[in-house]
Amino acid sequence: MIRFILTIGLLSVFIGDPPVRAGEARIAVASNATSAIKAIAERFQEQTGDKIVLVFGGTGKFYAQIMNGAPFDAFFSADTRRPALLEQKGVALPDSRFTYAQGKIVLFSPKLDATSAVLKKRAYRYLAIANPKLAPYGEAAKQVLEKLGLWDTLRFQMVRGENIGQTYQFVISGNAELGFVALSQIKQPGLAISGSYWEVPANLYQPIKQQAVLLSHNPVAKAFMEFVRSDEVKAIIQGFGYEEQ
């Protein structure tokens, strides 16, 4: 009798409705796009039930990690160079690369009147920028300062973040009175910007085109990349201060 009951119980497990399991994708995202990609991932998860695991950091470091086999399914970079290199080296899937945003750099301060005039007056202790060797927004900041003739003048007042996320933290924490950050870091849809900023004229730096690539055949990652290219998502991206693509 006991054996019969156990058999019935096991049969009920096998013939019952199987549990529905959502898929999952692990995605590396440049830190300037933190808020925008979070919002997009939430919308995607609501619509599909699949899970997007986001890891935020610097473009240069992510590139090195991916080249060393880091287990990411996709990469949202802050530039075009690293995704192109990943594609050329056969690490990224062919024909998966596309531009998802074009960033803008701003001079931002929670307390000072952030203008080009204030920048030139040097009435502050520290100016934060991202490391130009690792971060595309840092390279853009360097281009701006060189065009303004201030790169050498301000070199002893600069504090350099490893990426644009750390650079923003330097400014928002007060460790630097002002800094060059991404507009997407201070602009949130429906919210007022806390502080002042100067949107740097586009002719002072090279366009910051940001590209994404697939790194695996994960179907959830592929679906997410297709979702990012939709008109619905383009509107979300623009809401965070990126230029229309």
From TrEMBL:
Kindly list the biological process annotations in GO that this record carries: molybdate ion transport
Q: Which GO terms describe its molecular function?
A: metal ion binding; molybdate ion binding; tungstate binding
Q: Which keywords appear in this protein's UniProt record, sorted alphabetically?
A: Metal-binding, Molybdenum, Signal
Q: Which CDD domains match?
A: PBP2_AvModA
> SUPFAM superfamilies from the entry?
Periplasmic binding protein-like II
Superkingdom of source: Bacteria
- Record-listed molybdate binding positions: 59, 164
- InterPro entries, alphabetically? AvModA-like_subst-bd, ModA, ModA/WtpA
Q: Which family does it belong to?
A: Belongs to the bacterial solute-binding protein ModA family.
Q: How does it assemble?
A: The complex is composed of two ATP-binding proteins (ModC), two transmembrane proteins (ModB) and a solute-binding protein (ModA).
In its UniProt entry, what is this protein called?
A: Molybdate ABC transporter substrate-binding protein
Q: Which organism is it from?
A: Candidatus Thiomargarita nelsonii
